Amino acid sequence: MTSTATASSVAEPPPALEVHKTGSGSALGRYILIRFLLIFPTVLILVTLVFFLIRLTGDPITAALGGRLPADQLAERIHEAGYDRPILVQYVEYLGRIFTFDFGTTITDNQPVVQVIATYGTATLELVLYSLVIAFIVGIPLGMVAAALRDRWSDALLRVSAILFYATPVFFAGLVAKLVFGVWLGWLPISGRASVRTELAIGRNGGTGIYLIDAIASGNPAYVQDVLLHAVLPALTLGLLTAGIFLRLVRTNVIGTFNMPYIDAARSRGVREGRLVRTHAYKPALIPIITVIGLQIALMLGGAVLTETTFEWKGLGFQLAAYLGSRDFVAVQGIVAMIAIIVAVTNFAVDIIAAFIDPRVRY
What we know:
Elements: H1 2-11, H2 13-37, H3 39-55, H4 60-65, H5 71-81, H6 87-99, H7 113-148, H8 153-167, H9 170-184, H10 196-202, H11 211-218, H12 221-257, H13 261-268, H14 273-311, H15 316-325, H16 329-357
Helix pairs in contact: 2-16, 3-16, 7-8, 7-12, 7-14, 7-16, 8-12, 9-12, 9-14, 10-11, 11-12, 12-14, 14-15, 14-16, 15-16
């Protein structure tokens, strides 16, 4: 009798454990579904705002070509594009085209907006990736150092540096970097993605549009060096902006983990403070970094407009600024809509990664 009771009591936990796993999986699935469904209203709100704000200036044809065409030709172009129809009809039709990834045709150079995005988007992607590398390399280690040396003069210096990184306007930081490292010291190129010779060589057989990959594929180290040298100043300018945020986040969260029981236990065993930071405290501090990466991608895409313009980095931001200057609002509307989709999907992916790393996120 006793042995039977004992066996029964031992056999009880597995069903309970299975129920817990099932409940956890259900919570994760519900969280993923909710986050996925939120993509659509997010994109819809952003696209709607851009559509109606642009229409405040009138129709895009008049904005881009008004004063450059006779009145009868201008009216004909407006009618052909459908901009003389009620605004709500235009809005519904525009939403329908977006769902098929038809963002219209630019007015100034008569290109499909999708083609513009495909042509110049790789340059912006490359710049954002460089900038993220800079942000991680600078922000995370310095945040750990600031936490390890908290309340000392070096910690205060790092915190002030983080504020300066974040608060300095991107275009101003870019102009200063060009002046110091390009003009005064002559160390680095100040414009373009590569020299003309390198661009011709790596673009001769097509390529990916990401210059670093194309330069590596060419097998010529000189081309790789040229591409990387041109990327240094733009990547630093945009990357330090995010590095300041990462630094403060890591510092705050590493200090917060110092009060956890397992840190006290490690400290009582004689573990040194430096090892506590490197081995025990930094992993929990990385979770907030992951959760804010989606927001930082949006910030970087916004900063890319000014960075690319400052360094003549011919990416999507550079083209967006050019279309704004020529008042080509069809192109502006399409590029902004695509950026909204990219940001929404990136945030979704980051949220899912964070949920897998930290189960508390899904509740």
